[in-house]
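Bumping with the actual sequence this time:
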Amino acid sequence: MARIIIPHSGIFLHVRLAIVCGFGRVPSRRGRIPSFNREILGMTSHSEGWKSKWFLASLIIIAIFINIHFSGGDRPQTLYREEVASARTPEPVAMVHREPAKLEPVRDEAKERAEAARKVAEWKQAQIDRYLTAGEYSRKPGVKQVAIAVSKDTGGYHRGLTKLLSTSLKTNSVEFLPALFQPEFLSDGLFARAWEGASNPIDLLDLQTFLDAIVLGRERVKYTVNPPSLANVITANLELEVTMMRVKNPKDAQTYTYSTVGVGFQNDAARAMAEEKLMKQLAGDTKMSLAELFSEPEK
């Protein structure tokens, strides 16, 4: 028996060879070998030797092809087995830690609306406290309530003209509120916007809830210094504009204009004379009336 080892193939071939040796004597049944038999046995041994060599060569060639087929060329079989093992071994999966989802609180829309309405009401009340004199204001049956204010060209309210104007316009069915508006109503520009017929001051302060009309006056004075031939006397040209509007339709207003002249050696003296003449003019005026304003149908 012969053992053949194929390098790097992991294959061992065990080959059983029958070798007929030509040396020695092969006994016959009778113990003697004829001469012609010896020649035949010599030829047989020589032929069997060549067959054995060809058989071994064939096995070696087959083993080489098997080695190439299974090992993938020149790579060692051990490397091939390691690659197969690594390909079959799954890679570890990385564990990802995720935070649990946070649930948003359920919105209470009714509560949110109530909170928004509360904030709006607080803000609006702050505006009313700033621009209106504190007091309880409400409608009175059969009575028209009218807010009235006259501004001076030097700033602030002219309380004297406000009182005179309300006296000249007063009737039994009309009640005036001469001190309704705070100084901030004038300084913050709400007086000017109301004069122009804007409705936002009315809506902002909820005036429509208790007022029927608004009367606003605006005084303007222009001073002129006369020449020395007139002893440097100062002339005060005073103009008073009055506008009356209903709170439900402020753009549809009635406007009246009054003008007087006063003289004096100083501005205050000339102005005082002009205002005195104006008061007399208003007291005797019959053209300006709230009755005409309230008699017009609402648009």
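The tokens above came from a reply further down the thread. The radius of gyration is 63 Å.
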